[in-house]
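Ligand: 2-acetamido-2-deoxy-beta-D-glucopyranose. Inputs:
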Amino acid sequence: MIELKSRRPWVLLSSLLILVGVAAFLVFPLDHEQSPIGYASKHAAPYKAPRQNVWAELTEGEAADVNNFILKEFAHLDLKKHPKSARDNFIFVVETLKPNKTDAASYLYNDGPSPPERWAKAAIAQNLKDGPYMIYYMVGPLPISKDSVILPLEYVFNSGRNYVQNPMKDYTAIQDFALALAENVSDITQELLGATANRQNPSDPHGLLAVPRGSRVDAGGLTLWLQFYRPGMSSGARTLLPQGIYAKVDATSSDVNEWIVSQFYYNGVLYEDAEHFRAAVDGPDFERTPPNLDGPWTDTEDFESHPPGRELPPPVSVQPYGPRYRLDRKERFISWFGFEFYITTAQATGVSLFDIRFNGERVMYELGLQEAMAHYAGDDPMQGGLEFMDTFFGMGKNAFELVPGYDCPAYADYLDAEWHQAYQTHHTPNSICVFEYTADYLLSRHTSQYSVTASRNTFLTVRSVSTVGNYDYTIDYIFYMDGTLEVKVRASGFIFGAFYTANNTKSEDQYGHRIHEALSSSMHDHVINFKADLDVAGPKNDMVRMAIEPFTSTYEWDQPEQPKRNTMHLVEYPVTEEAGIDWPKNSGEFYIVYSSDEKNAWGERKGYRITPGTGMGSTPHLTILNSTTLGDSARWAEHDIWVLKQKDTEPRSADPLNFFAPHDPIIDFTKMADGESLEHTTSDTSYDGDLVLYFNVGAHHVPTSQDVPNTLMHTSASSVMFVPHNFADRDPSRGSVQGVRLQMSGKKSGGFAGEEHEPSGDLRSRQMGRKLEGQDRTKASYFGATYESAIKLPLEAFEPDMAGYSSKEHDVTDLSISYKVGAAGV
Ligand SMILES: *[C@@H]1O[C@H](CO)[C@@H](O)[C@H](O)[C@H]1NC(C)=O
Ligand SMILES: *[C@@H]1O[C@H](CO)[C@@H](O)[C@H](O)[C@H]1NC(C)=O
Ligand SMILES: *[C@@H]1O[C@H](CO)[C@@H](O)[C@H](O)[C@H]1NC(C)=O
Ligand SMILES: *[C@@H]1O[C@H](CO)[C@@H](O)[C@H](O)[C@H]1NC(C)=O
Ligand SMILES: [Cu+2]
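Predicted complex:
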């Protein structure tokens, strides 16, 4: 519960510096004769987006204007610029209120003359008679003028409210209370855990933290369970260091002096109060269990091991001629081999993409994260009800600077992010990276009798990493040359473990594995929700389930030998009303969004298929049915994908403040997915056919001893892909890929029949010039550019210079302050 400004990044950094030092001696440029050419060309011709980025986050100037306007207009609220306590009123957050799609559409798609009005969204912390509230307003139009107004922001919240009561009436008081509690039982903690809390230095590595979890959050107040933790010494591993003492606090009263410490829990036994606990500890039959001590086992680096091979740096990817995408940094617009889209950020949700087109045709209006949830289970009072919704802490706010050459290839382009909280603009430099990458496998190949052809799979990635307390989520939006899009999330960082009572009769083995002396791995579900507002070749779309079904048929040509034949066929089931759908058994159905009007050259509806992508198996939904902790705050987690009507009044599936009022959330997803008809073919319906999908990625995470110290990203990955389904007339990647066709020696080319080979065919041909002894030359015909000569690259192409890494210390979220008045991600 103690605010810990982590200094851990410097530990990470020093490890990088050491690797850089080693690599500097080991990397040799490819060729010394060639003069160095511009590495990762930063001098490409300026590129202009076709339109304004109407979703862009407020600039620093806009945010200041909005703040000043609110201060002036809401003078009666006595808003404090530097709030001293939760009893002060203050402007918590200002950010862009995304324009209604209806208003943006005419500008984007019908050559409308002007962009939609720009508005801001403000969250104001306001004290009312019954305590603190967080209240949303809309402020605009921008720029602030005499026409600008402040209105309650209600239309985006289906609760009909624009406010949420803050159950944490006074966070500082909770911190003080927890410290006092810890001090009052310091004799017991010393005896059983070998440590005590340190008021003078709360993050004393040898001390204890008391971390609260709201076991029942209601507008009226809270019941808290506190658990003791060790802070973690060198790697910030506190979530691997839970201790076996828990205390219950009745925090219902708004006056912290009236809070009551009641039960204690240790080694499977519940004690009425501290006195009973103390008496038991002193008694003869007391059952102890070993404490969970920090040590080298939580270290995230091993600087000492030298297995053969570690003395050499690994292969890395280089990009000697610069990127092939075009980037308008101002409008945050990218164009790459037919794909075009805008990027924006928000402190709660991080990166979103808008107006995604492929070869000039509309594919999606919006693609972006909505919420990242982790829901735990366990038989102890902490893990038993633990749940995090990470937009509350801020997936954007916690998207820190990326490590060049490690998070992203050395040649990546970086974008910064900004967010505005409590009258301040925060800059996060280099928090988004964009890069092309060539996979280690081909996009296509074929060997025929006289030739072989191979096309490289080069894709474009937009990446950010959100470190929310213990966990790091790497979020990728990936574009492939055939028009496929992928959303992929990988997790790393520390698991949130449970205390393992070694001498117990408890049921904890039902909830995870023992992974250290006194640590259980604590099973949990990660369910991470995204919105995909598909507009496949326009907004009018239909969703179908195309089933692949076994059946028995009779064919005339089969008679009389085979009266009946067991086979399979396609059966289409239109999705006619809003619904939550799970991935089918045996992958037996394709979920396809078709254009209602547009067809390809073959008369087939243009479509995109949504499917589980690459990673560990299908994407999961929440295992727990009707979660006691979640209430109605995250019902989107209960199915894999959802098909909904697009509505300006339903821009998001969740709101960060759902965390404060799970049983009466400000956005209740069940009211969005409420079974409305998706029919739009008959003339008597007013629905225009614009539908929106929500989908989940994540994992049923049952960590093992190998999640210590950190969860590994290659297996903690899951993705959803959007794959063109008859969208084009043939594979469009043919016009974009780089590859080679090799001609076998002999006169013919192609397949078995072959044609007489024409050396001056219409493919770009180049002689490899390598004579096979006394025989024909082998012909290589390249499509797309090739490397033509040796290149000398600077060291930074292999190992970016980290000496210039000058980030300030990271304000990493401390999950123990999850109820801090300032919800990070409003
Ligand atoms: C968006 O549309 C809603 C519903 O029609 C409307 O109430 C709201 O004012 C619009 N928002 C903006 C910023 O124009
Ligand atoms: C700590 O002990 C003092 C003295 O007995 C008592 O007044 C106070 O309420 C206790 N505080 C907590 C949080 O247990
Ligand atoms: C508790 O278990 C540990 C080993 O897990 C053992 O060394 C210790 O003696 C046990 N203590 C009691 C009181 O049973
Ligand atoms: C979910 O749980 C709540 C509270 O226990 C109950 O009122 C409700 O009927 C349950 N709903 C379903 C669908 O099980
Ligand atoms: Cu996990």
